[in-house]
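Morning!

This is the sequence you dropped in the shared folder:
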Amino acid sequence: MRDQTTGQRRAFIRFFACEQDLSHEAPDAPLPEAVAQGGEPFLVIGAIAGG
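The structure's back. C-alpha cells below.
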C-alpha cells in the first residue's frame, strides 16, 4: 500500500470506513472506534483511472 522507496501511500488506493472516505487522512491517524472494535469493516479499494 506504500511505495517502498518513499514510504508514501500509493496513488489510486482508497480507504473507506463507516461510510466515510479516509483516503486523505494522515497515514497514522487512528481508525474509527467501530472499525477498531470489529463492528464495521475497513475497506481498501483499488481505484481505476483512465479516460
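Headline: The two ends are 24 Å apart (CA to CA).

More detail when I'm at my desk.
O.
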